[in-house]
User: Which sequence fits this backbone?
């Protein structure tokens, strides 16, 4: 994934120096969105795992109430 982004940036720099910044502006929010999505998924998976391990104990974090 990182290699592909680097190749994309290299390609944009080599061919269109003007559009490279535009592509970077497009790539950056997409990348950060994926990171945020993965972080969200990781938190939920971790909480589920913790809840499965401590079945009797109520979760200290109030996150599960909103779900």
Assistant:
């Amino acid at each position: 994934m990182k290699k592909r982004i680097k190749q994309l940036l290299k390609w944009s720099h080599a061919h269109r120096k003007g559009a490279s910044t535009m592509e970077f502006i497009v790539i950056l929010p997409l990348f950060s969105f994926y990171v945020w999505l993965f972080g969200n998924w990781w938190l939920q998976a971790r909480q589920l795992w913790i809840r499965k391990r401590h079945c009797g104990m109520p979760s200290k974090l109030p996150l599960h109430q909103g779900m």
In short: The chain is about 80% helix and 0% strand. The longest helix spans residues 17-53. The chain has a mean pLDDT of 76.
